[in-house]
Amino acid sequence: VVAPSASVAELLRARGVAVPIEVIPTGVELAVFSPGEASALRQSLGIPPAAFVAGHIGRLAEEKNPLFLARVAADFLRATPCAHFLLAGAGPARAAMVRAFEERRVGARLHRLGVLEAEELVAAYRAMDVFLFASQSETQGMVLTEAMAAGTPVVAVDGPGVREVVRDGENGRLVSTLDENALGRALLWYAALAPGRRRELREAALATAAAFSMEKMAARLLELYRTLIVGRPRPKEEELGRWAGSWRYFEREWEILRNLAHAAEEALRVEGKGKE
User: Are 1 and 19 in contact (CB under 8 A)?
Assistant: First the structure.
């Protein structure tokens, strides 16, 4: 069985899967989600060049803890006047998330981008200084590796598929519990970092994404297939012997029939000559 994360592998084992489980995440296209120009999108949204920008991209549904995330982000904007927040995605919780910002009177610094694809999606990652994540229902951290491939560190709540990607204090911050104050403090911590320290986290984020590259994950999967092919279960010796014996029997029978056919052909030829 191939699992996309160690968390899923543990869950499968807990549910009684006894066969070997190999953890191979879905790879990220590094060439697509690469660092690049951030000012174009910021300028189009009216965000000042020196502003600190946090953001989130994903499905805005209950299982992703959307209101928890919105409250943390809105409180962060209220505590950080120069900060802005990008919210991309769609889902049933979107309206309630927007209300959380408006209730805290920071709606003007919330930028709703809707559903993004291709170049727009990459541009949104690049425009962020940090990616905020609160879901605990992930099978793997695809959106996190995409953000890191764009050079954007992550502040997240610990959970399945998240802890395999985010390393606290190295490529972002990983908060151990679903606590608004704790996640808010982690976000404030990152915003207060000196430029040099932020650069270190961005470089670590890029290194993390490289470890999840599509090429590396594909190579691991191919190697797993090769291992399985070479070490595949063989037929039992007695079955193999029985098939080999049957094959030899058919070979002998075929040889006998072929000899009989030749003999009959020769007899008919001789008989024909005698009649002439």
Answer: yes
What token pair was written down for 274? 């005698």
Cβ neighbours of 229 (radius 10 Å): 8
What is the average per-residue pLDDT within 219-229? 94
Please name which of 125, 118, 164, 113 lies closest in space to residue 7, comparing C-alpha atoms. Answer: 164
pTM, rounded to two decimals = 0.81
pLDDT tens readout for residues 50-88: 999 999 999 999 999 999 999 999 999 999 999 999 999
* Spatial CA neighbour of 72 closest among 168, 192, 194, 188: 188
Residue with tokens 């990616």: 131
Burial of 232 by CB count in 10 Å (0-12 exposed, 13-18 middle, 19+ buried)? exposed
Q: Which residue has the tokens 């986290």?
A: 201
| 68 contact partners, CB below 8 Å, separation of at least 6 | 134, 178, 180
For residue 82, what are its two tokens? Answer: 């120069």
Say if residues 56 and 89 touch (Cβ distance below 8 Å).
yes
**Among residues 188, 170, 186, 169, which one has the least CA distance to residue 178?**
186
Question: Can you give the length of the chain in residues?
Answer: 276
Q: Give 11: exposed, middle or buried? Use CB within 10 Å, 0-12, 13-18, 19+.
A: middle
Helix (H) or strand (E) holding 229: helix 214-230
Return the structure tokens found at 232: 């595949």
